[in-house]
Amino acid sequence: MTGSxxxxxxxxxxxxxxxxxxxxxxxxxxxxxGKTTLLRVLNGAxxxxxxxxxxxxxxxxxxxATLGFAEYATVIxxxxxxxxxxxxxxxxxxxxxxxxxxFAGLTDRASHRLHTLSAGQRMRLGFAISTAIQxxxxxxxxxxxxxxxxxxxxxxxxxxxxxxxxRIVVLASHSAELQKRLCNKALVLDQGRMxxxxxxxxxxxVYRSIVSAASAELRAQVAANDPLLxxxxxxxxxxxxxxxxxxxxxxxxxxxxxxxxxxxxxxAGGAKGPAAPERVDRxxxxxxxxxxxxxxxxxxxLPAPEDxxxxxxxxxxxxxxxxSMERLGAPLPMAKAAVVEVC
Length: 343
Fold this sequence. Notes:
Order of helices and strands: EHEHHHEHEHEEHHEEEEEHEHEE
Helix content: 25-40%
Structural class: alpha/beta
Number of helices: 10
Radius of gyration: 25 Å
Oligomer: single chain
Mean pLDDT: 87
CATH class of the largest domain: Alpha Beta
Largest sheet: 6 strands, mixed
CATH topology of the largest domain: Rossmann fold
Strand order of the largest sheet: 2-3-4-1-5-6
CATH architecture of the largest domain: 3-Layer(aba) Sandwich
Shape: elongated
Low-confidence stretches: none
């Protein structure tokens, strides 16, 4: 019989920052960077192995609206349990009980057990409890709102009010556009370490450089969740040719500022590398982009990775372009009528 082993992993390190009254802090980073872990450290759910957390005032977190619910307790009992876990006194809970039930649309189901509610009703109940009291410090993991259109609008209005009424807000989100609209500061995490803390615009720029250095798959995920992070960069691949262990590519692209791209990054067969493109004047592209001048077409030729057959290379081929390797856009799509040749 073999015994179990316990492995310890350092999730966050070298992290130090201070938020003051009026600060709205955007928490940025790729998936796995440590954003949710940091929020749980800040709300006291996790105790740091080293270092200290100092805060003043009531802290409330919107991380998981249904966390801590008891399946076989009634709706009212769950309000009491969650309210107590939030640090509220009995008198405070009793004072907001009616508002919670009304906001969640569960007044007539107050004595029903939780397991009889639908997933949407549970989410509404959790949201109503979590936002029942105006906190001094609000911690948020995404913009939480669920249900029908009427409830979503009510939830958005309440959340906006809670944000405006809080002294400090820390918001993690997949939308840099939302964070830029709501926040004045950014805290950027990269593999558990703080890369930047300060002005929101500079923070978005630092986060974008992290995204540019990530794999094409991760960039594609970020682009799907947050297309505005890449600005108006666009383009496509129109021809792929694999011959004599070389990959030849043709297409067009513009960077996030609507200019000619300076670098094309090709990922194939597990290898990733930049290539200086041969820029081509394409009248059709200029007309499409409504540009009077500029060479937005490109050609690239580079060695193919060793020990990879052509089919594998094509399946894993990802091409990105931008003003630099630190400012790559999302992977370029393949044109519908793209020509693919294997010689």
